[in-house]
Amino acid sequence: MSTTNPPQLFLLADHIKLSLLERQRAISLNLSPNSQDAQISRSLEQLRSGIEALESQVEDNPDESITSQLPRLRTQLTDLTSQFRPSAETPISPTLTQPNDPSLSSDFAAAQSKKPRQVSKSVRFRDDDAADDHDPNRASLFPYRDDPSDAPPDQAELSNQQIHEYHSRVISEQDDQLDQLGASIGRQRELSMQIGDELDGQVVLLDDVEEGVDRHAAQFRRARGRLDRFSRKAKENWSLTVIVVLIVILVLLIVITK
């Protein structure tokens, strides 16, 4: 049991109270009262184990703040257990109707109400959308409709010839719209083909650039190799060059001195 301090145990007791009040309300409304019996039983056992843990804790380490809360916790455990398994003469304990935490007062009031909860039911698909037409949020989310906005004329007073002319005109208008749509699709196809041709041309240019880069890179590598070879030869012939220069200087000095 991890709940070993009074505030948490009082909160657990409040949850048990709410469950018991919901259970009693279900009985008063002729509903099934045993849907939460297993959960209530486990919660009562947790409350009992928590109180026993606190009692063991204060025996080892006396703490007045915990000791002062234990009688109240024991009283609530006794009252809640008796309310969970009531006898014919068991009245509703005041402990059951008063929360330990004042912030739960509204929940307790709702749980003690004898009126059944009003459950809001909404249907996703409806035949009548008149109410939704005036909702700006829905209009922004669903701007398209399956049915046309222009209602067909009342054909009850039309003759067969007039009905035939009306439908012929509608079909003609639809044909014109389809022709315009087809022309637009054709333009989009031509534009797509032009974009494809332009991309093909760009691919060819990129291939040419890549070939040029590869060619220049090969030339650069060959030039670098020639420079490396010349540098190595210069280092190998450096001593010979020095000897030749010294001989030339010596010859010049002999000639000058004579």
UniProtKB/TrEMBL annotation:
Residues 82-106 have a biased composition (Polar residues). It holds the Pfam family SNARE. Residues 124-137 have a biased composition (Basic and acidic residues). The keyword Transmembrane applies. CDD domains: SNARE_SYN8. InterPro entries: Syntaxin, T_SNARE_dom. Keywords: Membrane, Transmembrane, Transmembrane helix. Residues 82-157 are annotated as: Disordered. SUPFAM superfamilies: SNARE fusion complex. Residues 168-230 form the T-SNARE coiled-coil homology domain. The keyword Membrane applies. SMART domains: t_SNARE. The chain crosses the membrane at residues 238-256. PANTHER family: SYNTAXIN, SYNTAXIN-8-RELATED. This is t-SNARE coiled-coil homology domain-containing protein. It comes from Paraconiothyrium brasiliense.
